[in-house]
Amino acid sequence: MHNEIKYEGKGKALYSTDTPGQLIQKFKDDTTAFDGKKHAVVTGKGVLNCAISSWFFERLHEAGIASHYIRRESADCMRIHELHMLPVEVVVRNMAAGSICRRLGLEEGLKLARPLTELFYKSDALGDPMINTEHAVLFGWATAEQLDTMRELARRINRLMCDILQDAGIVLVDFKLEFGLLDGKVVLGDEITPDGCRLWDAQTGQKLDKDVFRRDLGGLSEAYHEVAHRLGIEGVA
Predict the structure, then answer these.
(1) Which of 29, 46, 156, 225 is the least buried, fewest Cβ under 10 Å from its Cβ?
(2) Within the chain, which residues score under 50 in pLDDT?
(3) Which CA distances in Å does 136 have to 116, 120, 182, 192?
(4) Spatial separation of the C-alpha atoms in residues 191 and 177, rounded to whole Å
(5) Does residue 54 belong to any structural domain of this protein?
């Protein structure tokens, strides 16, 4: 059972449960881009994102990477541990796309010599600005040790996800991760879905992620269904 709402964001909502320290994370059909300036409701997206995210969290747990994930509770809900979230996102880039191209004048699709990790301050009001380690430590958003752990976990997750997706004929271009503290330990939180990853077909370069919505490239639901199908994920219509 989930009770009162604890938090509601653009794509998810968190509800309390009867078990202390556990929450229900519900994935919504709402789809946004450009800091919420573009919005649509895509029927079934919540179910797809819950299925994909649950599947990835289970693969990560099998590899010994801890997260807030407990289990998939229903079609569009997962049960999670309540974390003290750190207000710093880690973005891992294997190829140049999105904001790094605008910032540095890089050509989209440039393959990087090694995975790059970047830090961003989580603030919708400020547009999630890019920061460095000194900012995060100086302003108390995370300790240097926590940031080292986040980056190391991000690199491990990247290696695992790249291997999984490569077998499915998908290139992991980049993705964002959020972390929090569980009993003082840094663990992965939030979600792993095509909302927060750039996924390209390995043969054609076709986009299978939220850029489909950002750039009006076709049906978002069809793209997410394709990802789920290639990964062999069950429980999606």
Answers:
(1) 156
(2) 1
(3) 18, 9, 19, 23
(4) 8
(5) yes
